[in-house]
Amino acid sequence: MKIAVLFGAQSFEHEISVVSAIALKKVLKSEIVYIFCDYERNFYLIPTDKITSKRFSSGEYKKDKALHVKQGGFYAKKMLGEEQISFDVMINLVHGRDGEDGKLSALLDFFGIPYIGPRMEACSISYNKLFTKLYAKEVGVNVLPYQLLHKGSNEAISIAYPFIVKPLRLGSSIGIGIVKEEKELAYALDVAFEFDDTVLIEPFISGVKEYNLAGCKTDSFTFSIIEEPQKEAFLDFDKKYLDFSRTKRVNEASLEVTLEKEIQTSFIKLYDPLFLGALIRCDFFVIDGVVYLNEINPVPGSMANYLFDDFDGVIKRLVNYLPHTTTVTKEYRYINSIQAAKGK
Amino acid sequence: MKIAVLFGAQSFEHEISVVSAIALKKVLKSEIVYIFCDYERNFYLIPTDKITSKRFSSGEYKKDKALHVKQGGFYAKKMLGEEQISFDVMINLVHGRDGEDGKLSALLDFFGIPYIGPRMEACSISYNKLFTKLYAKEVGVNVLPYQLLHKGSNEAISIAYPFIVKPLRLGSSIGIGIVKEEKELAYALDVAFEFDDTVLIEPFISGVKEYNLAGCKTDSFTFSIIEEPQKEAFLDFDKKYLDFSRTKRVNEASLEVTLEKEIQTSFIKLYDPLFLGALIRCDFFVIDGVVYLNEINPVPGSMANYLFDDFDGVIKRLVNYLPHTTTVTKEYRYINSIQAAKGK
Lengths: 344, 344
Known about the structure:
By secondary structure, chain A is of the alpha+beta class. Chain A contains 10 helices and 17 strands. Chain A has 3 domains: 2-116, 3-Layer(aba) Sandwich (Rossmann fold), CATH 3.40.50; 124-142 and 206-321, D-amino Acid Aminotransferase, Chain A, domain 1 (2-Layer Sandwich); 145-203, Dna Ligase, domain 1 (2-Layer Sandwich), CATH 3.30.1490.20. The first copy, chain A, has helices spanning 14-27, 53-57, 103-110, 120-127, 129-138, 185-193, 237-243, 257-271, 311-318, 333-341, and strands at residues 2-8, 31-37, 43-46, 65-70, 73-77, 82-84, 89-92, 115-116, 142-143, 147-150, 163-167, 177-179, 198-203, 209-217, 221-227, 280-287, 290-297. In chain A, strands 6-5-4-3-2-1-7-8 form an 8-stranded mixed beta sheet, with helices on both faces. Chains A, B: It catalyses: 2 D-alanine + ATP = D-alanyl-D-alanine + ADP + phosphate + H(+).
């Protein structure tokens, strides 16, 4: 099997995606075709032996083959005509904007390119923290209370200190700040409003237990181990960045069986059917024995490979369970009947 | 100003889009550039004087100039190289799949093409009837009670007869059926499940008053007149189809001023900021003096031009108020610092 890995793009997490892509080289046993999307959203075919972070930071990738996308796949220009880049399936490995907001999913669906990754609708729900809350509540998964603040408004805050301020969209802790008292508020809001016109506030619970679970659905659900991520206060962007290059298995959290089951049940409620076709990681809080969703990562760093015993096997299985949309039959029934009525 | 109209695409409402596009020719005073997306999602530049429904149903459009999309716009191949199709803004006039589900919005955003139409996130909310309900409730607009049914499950129905069965996604009444008693249920479900694996059921209220309001936000809100659509039982696809070719002003519904204001207030709550950049039509029910959202049409048939006094003026104003996303600065800060630490 030939797997294309799509990475980079116009995202604040562009660099994380580059690091994720390099990490996959060590854990995927299939032949990999690397397709890089640069900050300007131009596509390049990167030879697998040239996959180093420096190739991108230096701009050397521009010497590689430029690609364009159209019906059926990615193509490179040739002297005469063009050639299609051959692969069986693509992994969307773009984190943040373009990859997790749904743009690339839409593009791949529109052009009929099979891919592992969240579909557009799933992205819209997980990328927007308000929609994630509404959705989680609807499917019966607990979330922390929240309040939205809009840029330029003077809304009173009804959540007690300490709380977390988050841009409504984006992932990877970008623009997020903990506010312990009023004097820290203005700065935290300034930072968060740089990334979005709406921010979400939720209580900050010191020392809360966090558990990460990744998985996907094929003929049944495949779950990773549950990890309790190491953190100081909370994981900031720099630490998460380093985290994303991981390819080694981590230690399993020691959990009561009932709690483990509850975390898995919450994952299933969130996943099925919205995230079909994707391998996602859900991050949960456990407070007084109750499970709460923190966030859904529909394109987790390095695909959370370090949480699986047989990551390569999971990917190969998932390829056979990608969702398909109902077919639209080409027809001009109404137009033809009007034409006929007109006697033309 | 040169306005490109994008229409057609792989949608059950493809034909409606063709009719909508033809209707716009009569009401837009600007020069129009017609870009057709066929059922196979190939793009063509259609000369404005050849815009007749027969050109598409006969397949003659294939003689027109084939286009491809990439960074910056749509391009046609020339003997040597290619030429960009010039226009100032594009109107997304694709109804249903591709146009209202967010795929084309994503494509246009990804390739940096300015357009009038709902953004991807707005599409995901309005295209999925469950998400529309959750969103409307969140912003303080009433919705009818509902229940979801999943294909293959044997869920008990808790909503009393008569009720309406709707595929979870899609618009324009496709796949929708009224169920008055149990013996009509199986057939209605069969039809709806042909279009989606999930269907939504809501009470059918005979003789309910329906009011349609279109509008958009520029420096302030511009509203159309409020129309009370004519209907028998409820508007089916055939009638809606004919409806979409309308270019004549309709009669304003006679409403109490307070009710008119309440409908406009509900529209504002739904529109701002999610639908910025789009001219949408919201369809409301009024039951015992209370306003309920029925549905949001983010790409209404023929852009609801027949509801506006000065449709051309509204479009020209809206062009100056299209939303912009925050810029992602190209940088390789993390990768460079790692490179530096390695002493390379």
